[in-house]
Amino acid sequence: MTNTVFSSHSSASTTLRELIQYPDRGLSKKVLLADENCQYTLLCLRKGTNISEHTASRNASITVIEGYGTFTLEEKEILLEPGVFLFMPANTRHAVKTRDNLAFLLTLSEPSQPKNQLSKHTIDVVKSTAPILKKNGKQITTRMYEIMFGNHPEVKEQFDASAQADGSQPTKLATAIYSYASHIDNLDALKSAVEKIAHRHVQTHVTAEQYPIVGESLLQAMKDVLGEIATDEVMAAWTEAYGVLAEIFINREHQIYESQGV
Ligand code: HEM
Protein backbone atom coordinates (compact mmCIF):
# COMPACT_ATOMS: atom_id res chain seq x y z
CA MET A 1 0.00 0.00 0.00
CA THR A 2 1.36 3.43 -0.97
CA ASN A 3 2.05 5.82 1.89
CA THR A 4 -0.32 8.69 1.38
CA VAL A 5 -0.24 12.18 2.88
CA PHE A 6 -3.94 12.02 3.79
CA SER A 7 -6.37 9.28 4.66
CA SER A 8 -9.55 8.91 2.62
CA HIS A 9 -11.54 8.52 5.85
CA SER A 10 -11.30 12.12 7.01
CA SER A 11 -11.46 15.53 5.41
CA ALA A 12 -8.22 17.31 4.62
CA SER A 13 -6.79 20.48 3.15
CA THR A 14 -3.35 21.66 2.19
CA THR A 15 -1.54 24.25 0.11
CA LEU A 16 -0.11 22.33 -2.81
CA ARG A 17 2.69 24.83 -3.46
CA GLU A 18 4.13 24.04 -0.02
CA LEU A 19 4.38 20.33 -0.84
CA ILE A 20 6.38 20.87 -4.04
CA GLN A 21 9.88 19.39 -3.92
CA TYR A 22 11.85 18.87 -7.11
CA PRO A 23 14.38 16.05 -7.18
CA ASP A 24 17.87 16.87 -8.53
CA ARG A 25 16.96 14.98 -11.70
CA GLY A 26 13.81 13.37 -13.06
CA LEU A 27 10.54 13.51 -11.20
CA SER A 28 9.09 12.91 -7.77
CA LYS A 29 5.62 11.67 -6.94
CA LYS A 30 3.74 12.32 -3.73
CA VAL A 31 0.45 10.45 -3.36
CA LEU A 32 -1.82 12.79 -1.42
CA LEU A 33 -4.71 10.41 -1.16
CA ALA A 34 -5.81 7.14 -2.69
CA ASP A 35 -8.76 4.80 -2.46
CA GLU A 36 -10.00 2.04 -4.74
CA ASN A 37 -11.58 4.54 -7.17
CA CYS A 38 -9.35 7.59 -7.14
CA GLN A 39 -5.76 8.61 -6.68
CA TYR A 40 -4.50 12.19 -6.22
CA THR A 41 -0.77 12.57 -6.82
CA LEU A 42 1.48 15.61 -6.82
CA LEU A 43 4.09 15.27 -9.57
CA CYS A 44 7.19 17.48 -9.54
CA LEU A 45 9.33 17.34 -12.69
CA ARG A 46 12.79 18.87 -12.74
CA LYS A 47 13.36 21.03 -15.85
CA GLY A 48 14.59 18.81 -18.69
CA THR A 49 12.52 15.78 -17.62
CA ASN A 50 10.13 14.38 -20.19
CA ILE A 51 7.55 11.60 -19.94
CA SER A 52 7.32 9.74 -23.23
CA GLU A 53 4.04 8.78 -24.84
CA HIS A 54 1.97 6.28 -22.88
CA THR A 55 -1.61 5.53 -21.85
CA ALA A 56 -3.29 5.02 -18.47
CA SER A 57 -6.01 2.51 -17.76
CA ARG A 58 -7.93 5.08 -15.72
CA ASN A 59 -9.42 8.49 -16.48
CA ALA A 60 -6.89 11.19 -15.67
CA SER A 61 -6.88 14.91 -15.08
CA ILE A 62 -4.01 17.33 -14.62
CA THR A 63 -4.08 20.67 -12.81
CA VAL A 64 -0.87 22.68 -13.19
CA ILE A 65 0.32 24.36 -10.01
CA GLU A 66 3.58 25.94 -11.15
CA GLY A 67 6.03 25.87 -14.02
CA TYR A 68 5.77 25.40 -17.76
CA GLY A 69 5.73 22.53 -20.20
CA THR A 70 3.96 21.00 -23.16
CA PHE A 71 1.38 18.25 -22.95
CA THR A 72 0.78 16.13 -26.03
CA LEU A 73 -2.72 14.73 -25.97
CA GLU A 74 -3.03 12.35 -28.91
CA GLU A 75 -1.99 14.69 -31.79
CA LYS A 76 -2.72 17.98 -29.96
CA GLU A 77 -0.12 20.10 -28.12
CA ILE A 78 -1.30 21.96 -25.02
CA LEU A 79 0.77 24.57 -23.17
CA LEU A 80 1.09 23.71 -19.50
CA GLU A 81 1.15 26.79 -17.29
CA PRO A 82 -0.18 27.56 -13.81
CA GLY A 83 -3.95 27.15 -13.65
CA VAL A 84 -4.29 24.87 -16.69
CA PHE A 85 -6.62 21.94 -16.17
CA LEU A 86 -6.98 19.07 -18.61
CA PHE A 87 -8.86 15.80 -18.63
CA MET A 88 -8.40 12.63 -20.67
CA PRO A 89 -10.44 9.44 -20.65
CA ALA A 90 -8.73 6.12 -19.91
CA ASN A 91 -6.43 4.82 -22.65
CA THR A 92 -5.75 8.20 -24.27
CA ARG A 93 -2.19 8.54 -25.60
CA HIS A 94 -0.28 11.37 -23.95
CA ALA A 95 3.21 12.69 -23.22
CA VAL A 96 4.75 15.53 -21.18
CA LYS A 97 7.74 17.81 -21.91
CA THR A 98 9.05 20.30 -19.39
CA ARG A 99 10.19 23.81 -20.27
CA ASP A 100 10.96 24.71 -16.68
CA ASN A 101 10.49 22.96 -13.34
CA LEU A 102 6.88 21.78 -13.50
CA ALA A 103 4.49 20.69 -10.77
CA PHE A 104 0.97 19.40 -11.28
CA LEU A 105 -1.73 17.49 -9.51
CA LEU A 106 -2.60 14.24 -11.30
CA THR A 107 -5.98 12.71 -10.52
CA LEU A 108 -6.65 9.16 -11.67
CA SER A 109 -10.18 7.82 -11.42
CA GLU A 110 -11.93 4.62 -12.44
CA PRO A 111 -14.04 5.09 -15.58
CA SER A 112 -17.69 4.78 -14.58
CA GLN A 113 -19.03 1.32 -15.16
CA PRO A 114 -22.64 0.83 -16.04
CA LYS A 115 -24.21 -0.40 -12.83
CA ASN A 116 -25.09 -4.05 -12.90
CA GLN A 117 -28.83 -3.59 -13.21
CA LEU A 118 -29.54 -7.29 -13.29
CA SER A 119 -31.68 -8.79 -10.55
CA LYS A 120 -30.30 -11.54 -8.35
CA HIS A 121 -32.72 -13.95 -10.02
CA THR A 122 -31.48 -13.10 -13.53
CA ILE A 123 -27.87 -13.41 -12.38
CA ASP A 124 -28.58 -16.83 -10.84
CA VAL A 125 -30.39 -18.13 -13.93
CA VAL A 126 -27.66 -16.93 -16.32
CA LYS A 127 -24.93 -18.33 -14.08
CA SER A 128 -26.70 -21.68 -13.94
CA THR A 129 -26.42 -21.89 -17.76
CA ALA A 130 -22.60 -21.57 -17.69
CA PRO A 131 -21.89 -25.36 -17.74
CA ILE A 132 -24.32 -25.83 -20.66
CA LEU A 133 -22.65 -22.98 -22.52
CA LYS A 134 -19.25 -24.47 -21.90
CA LYS A 135 -20.42 -27.70 -23.50
CA ASN A 136 -22.60 -26.35 -26.33
CA GLY A 137 -21.11 -22.89 -26.80
CA LYS A 138 -19.50 -23.41 -30.17
CA GLN A 139 -22.57 -25.10 -31.59
CA ILE A 140 -24.63 -22.09 -30.45
CA THR A 141 -22.29 -19.47 -31.88
CA THR A 142 -21.87 -21.36 -35.17
CA ARG A 143 -25.67 -21.40 -35.46
CA MET A 144 -25.74 -17.73 -34.46
CA TYR A 145 -23.53 -16.70 -37.39
CA GLU A 146 -25.62 -18.85 -39.72
CA ILE A 147 -28.79 -17.03 -38.62
CA MET A 148 -27.17 -13.58 -38.65
CA PHE A 149 -25.55 -13.91 -42.08
CA GLY A 150 -28.81 -15.37 -43.44
CA ASN A 151 -30.95 -12.46 -42.17
CA HIS A 152 -28.36 -9.68 -42.52
CA PRO A 153 -25.91 -10.62 -45.28
CA GLU A 154 -24.52 -7.04 -45.31
CA VAL A 155 -22.80 -7.71 -41.93
CA LYS A 156 -20.72 -10.56 -43.35
CA GLU A 157 -18.07 -8.38 -44.97
CA GLN A 158 -16.96 -7.05 -41.55
CA PHE A 159 -15.83 -10.54 -40.58
CA ASP A 160 -12.65 -12.28 -41.57
CA ALA A 161 -13.82 -15.14 -43.81
CA SER A 162 -10.98 -17.46 -42.78
CA ALA A 163 -11.80 -17.04 -39.05
CA GLN A 164 -15.34 -18.15 -39.87
CA ALA A 165 -14.20 -21.03 -42.04
CA ASP A 166 -11.70 -22.46 -39.55
CA GLY A 167 -14.17 -21.95 -36.68
CA SER A 168 -11.89 -19.66 -34.68
CA GLN A 169 -14.40 -16.77 -34.54
CA PRO A 170 -17.32 -18.95 -33.30
CA THR A 171 -14.89 -20.39 -30.71
CA LYS A 172 -13.85 -16.90 -29.52
CA LEU A 173 -17.45 -15.77 -29.26
CA ALA A 174 -18.41 -18.95 -27.39
CA THR A 175 -15.56 -18.36 -24.91
CA ALA A 176 -16.72 -14.77 -24.40
CA ILE A 177 -20.34 -15.81 -23.79
CA TYR A 178 -19.31 -18.57 -21.38
CA SER A 179 -17.01 -16.21 -19.56
CA TYR A 180 -19.82 -13.65 -19.25
CA ALA A 181 -22.19 -16.28 -17.82
CA SER A 182 -19.65 -17.44 -15.27
CA HIS A 183 -18.64 -13.90 -14.18
CA ILE A 184 -22.00 -12.21 -14.39
CA ASP A 185 -21.89 -11.55 -10.65
CA ASN A 186 -18.43 -9.94 -10.93
CA LEU A 187 -18.22 -7.97 -14.16
CA ASP A 188 -14.89 -6.40 -13.14
CA ALA A 189 -13.25 -9.76 -13.89
CA LEU A 190 -14.17 -9.26 -17.57
CA LYS A 191 -12.46 -5.88 -17.94
CA SER A 192 -9.43 -6.99 -19.91
CA ALA A 193 -11.48 -9.25 -22.20
CA VAL A 194 -13.96 -6.41 -22.83
CA GLU A 195 -11.07 -4.10 -23.62
CA LYS A 196 -9.60 -6.48 -26.20
CA ILE A 197 -12.93 -7.25 -27.86
CA ALA A 198 -13.98 -3.58 -27.92
CA HIS A 199 -10.76 -2.63 -29.73
CA ARG A 200 -11.31 -5.41 -32.27
CA HIS A 201 -14.89 -4.18 -32.76
CA VAL A 202 -13.67 -0.64 -33.39
CA GLN A 203 -11.10 -1.96 -35.89
CA THR A 204 -13.89 -3.75 -37.74
CA HIS A 205 -16.28 -0.73 -37.55
CA VAL A 206 -18.93 -2.37 -35.37
CA THR A 207 -21.76 0.07 -34.58
CA ALA A 208 -24.21 0.33 -31.67
CA GLU A 209 -27.08 -0.32 -34.10
CA GLN A 210 -25.70 -3.78 -34.86
CA TYR A 211 -26.00 -5.07 -31.28
CA PRO A 212 -29.72 -5.96 -31.57
CA ILE A 213 -28.91 -7.99 -34.72
CA VAL A 214 -26.31 -10.08 -32.87
CA GLY A 215 -28.64 -10.27 -29.84
CA GLU A 216 -31.60 -11.63 -31.83
CA SER A 217 -29.43 -14.14 -33.66
CA LEU A 218 -27.71 -15.32 -30.49
CA LEU A 219 -30.95 -15.80 -28.58
CA GLN A 220 -32.53 -17.65 -31.49
CA ALA A 221 -29.42 -19.87 -31.74
CA MET A 222 -29.65 -20.69 -28.02
CA LYS A 223 -33.26 -21.80 -28.53
CA ASP A 224 -32.37 -23.85 -31.61
CA VAL A 225 -29.44 -25.66 -30.00
CA LEU A 226 -30.63 -25.99 -26.41
CA GLY A 227 -34.21 -27.00 -27.21
CA GLU A 228 -36.20 -27.53 -24.04
CA ILE A 229 -33.33 -26.41 -21.78
CA ALA A 230 -34.00 -22.92 -23.18
CA THR A 231 -37.10 -22.38 -21.03
CA ASP A 232 -38.94 -19.05 -20.98
CA GLU A 233 -37.14 -18.26 -17.73
CA VAL A 234 -33.71 -18.93 -19.25
CA MET A 235 -34.55 -16.92 -22.38
CA ALA A 236 -35.88 -13.97 -20.37
CA ALA A 237 -32.74 -13.93 -18.22
CA TRP A 238 -30.45 -14.10 -21.26
CA THR A 239 -32.40 -11.39 -23.10
CA GLU A 240 -31.82 -9.07 -20.16
CA ALA A 241 -28.22 -10.15 -19.66
CA TYR A 242 -27.37 -9.66 -23.35
CA GLY A 243 -28.73 -6.10 -23.12
CA VAL A 244 -26.36 -5.31 -20.24
CA LEU A 245 -23.35 -6.83 -22.02
CA ALA A 246 -24.23 -4.94 -25.22
CA GLU A 247 -24.37 -1.70 -23.22
CA ILE A 248 -20.92 -2.35 -21.75
CA PHE A 249 -19.44 -2.80 -25.25
CA ILE A 250 -21.38 0.09 -26.80
CA ASN A 251 -20.18 2.51 -24.08
CA ARG A 252 -16.56 1.42 -24.31
CA GLU A 253 -16.54 1.44 -28.11
CA HIS A 254 -18.10 4.90 -28.12
CA GLN A 255 -15.18 6.12 -25.95
CA ILE A 256 -12.63 4.52 -28.29
CA TYR A 257 -14.28 5.96 -31.43
CA GLU A 258 -14.35 9.39 -29.74
CA SER A 259 -10.68 9.18 -28.76
CA GLN A 260 -9.92 8.47 -32.43
CA GLY A 261 -11.94 11.52 -33.45
CA VAL A 262 -14.53 9.36 -35.26
C1 HEM B 1 -22.28 -8.72 -26.68
C2 HEM B 1 -22.06 -9.01 -27.94
C3 HEM B 1 -20.74 -9.41 -28.52
C4 HEM B 1 -19.77 -10.23 -28.03
C5 HEM B 1 -19.73 -10.96 -26.70
C6 HEM B 1 -18.73 -10.28 -29.04
C7 HEM B 1 -17.55 -10.99 -28.93
C8 HEM B 1 -16.51 -10.95 -29.82
C9 HEM B 1 -15.23 -11.62 -29.67
C10 HEM B 1 -14.84 -12.50 -28.48
C11 HEM B 1 -14.48 -11.33 -30.73
C12 HEM B 1 -13.03 -11.80 -31.01
C13 HEM B 1 -12.07 -10.72 -30.59
C14 HEM B 1 -10.62 -11.08 -30.86
O1 HEM B 1 -10.29 -11.40 -32.02
O2 HEM B 1 -9.84 -11.05 -29.93
C15 HEM B 1 -15.27 -10.48 -31.59
C16 HEM B 1 -14.84 -10.01 -32.80
C17 HEM B 1 -15.69 -9.41 -33.71
N1 HEM B 1 -16.99 -9.05 -33.49
FE1 HEM B 1 -18.02 -9.25 -31.79
N2 HEM B 1 -19.08 -9.51 -30.11
C18 HEM B 1 -20.32 -8.97 -29.83
C19 HEM B 1 -21.04 -8.13 -30.64
C20 HEM B 1 -20.72 -7.86 -31.93
C21 HEM B 1 -21.55 -7.08 -32.83
C22 HEM B 1 -22.86 -6.40 -32.49
C23 HEM B 1 -20.93 -7.09 -34.03
C24 HEM B 1 -21.45 -6.44 -35.27
C25 HEM B 1 -21.68 -7.07 -36.37
C26 HEM B 1 -19.69 -7.84 -33.87
C27 HEM B 1 -18.75 -8.02 -34.84
C28 HEM B 1 -17.48 -8.50 -34.64
C29 HEM B 1 -16.45 -8.51 -35.67
C30 HEM B 1 -16.60 -7.99 -37.09
C31 HEM B 1 -15.32 -9.08 -35.07
C32 HEM B 1 -13.98 -9.37 -35.74
C33 HEM B 1 -14.05 -10.76 -36.28
C34 HEM B 1 -12.91 -11.15 -37.18
O3 HEM B 1 -11.74 -10.91 -36.82
O4 HEM B 1 -13.23 -11.73 -38.22
N3 HEM B 1 -19.60 -8.29 -32.59
N4 HEM B 1 -16.50 -10.27 -31.01
From TrEMBL:
GO biological process: cellular response to nitrosative stress; nitric oxide catabolic process
Domain Globin: 117-254
GO MF annotation list: FAD binding; heme binding; metal ion binding; nitric oxide dioxygenase NAD(P)H activity; oxygen binding; oxygen carrier activity
Record flagged with keyword Heme: yes
Keywords for this protein: Heme, Iron, Metal-binding, Oxygen transport, Transport
Organism superkingdom: Bacteria
SUPFAM superfamilies: Globin-like, RmlC-like cupins
CDD domains in the cross-refs: cupin_HP0902-like (cd02230), FHb-globin (cd08922)
Pfam assignment, any one: Globin
UniProt record similarity statement: Belongs to the globin family. In the C-terminal section; belongs to the flavoprotein pyridine nucleotide cytochrome reductase family.
Protein name: Cupin domain-containing protein
Protein species of origin: Zarconia navalis LEGE 11467
